[in-house]
Amino acid sequence: MGNVIATAAVSPDGFVADPEDRVGPLFDWYNNGPVEVYGTDPGRAFHLGPASA
């Protein structure tokens, strides 16, 4: 039998990044809907579905 080794890095605040330092598929729902939502950064809006917004 072989060994399987998997790694992942998550910061204490829960941010997960892919190898290109972007949010990975886990957060694809950030921009897949028609409803524009702003968080604490007024320069960045997310486009969520109505249920997520």
Q: Got a strand count?
A: 2
User: SSE order, as H and E?
Assistant: EE
Largest sheet entry? 2 strands, antiparallel
Principal-axes geometry comes out as elongated
- Measured between the Cα atoms of the first and last residue, the distance is 47 Å
Count the helices. How many?
0
Radius of gyration: 15 Å
Mean pLDDT equals 77
Query: Level of helix content?
Result: under 10%
Strand order of the largest sheet: 1-2
Low-confidence stretches: none
Structural class by helix and strand composition: mainly beta
Percentage of residues in DSSP E strands: 15-25%
Describe the structure.
By secondary structure, the protein is an all-beta fold. It is built from no helices and 2 strands. It has a two-stranded antiparallel ribbon with strand order 1-2. Strand 1 and strand 2 form a beta hairpin.
Short synopsis of the structure:
This protein is mostly beta strands.
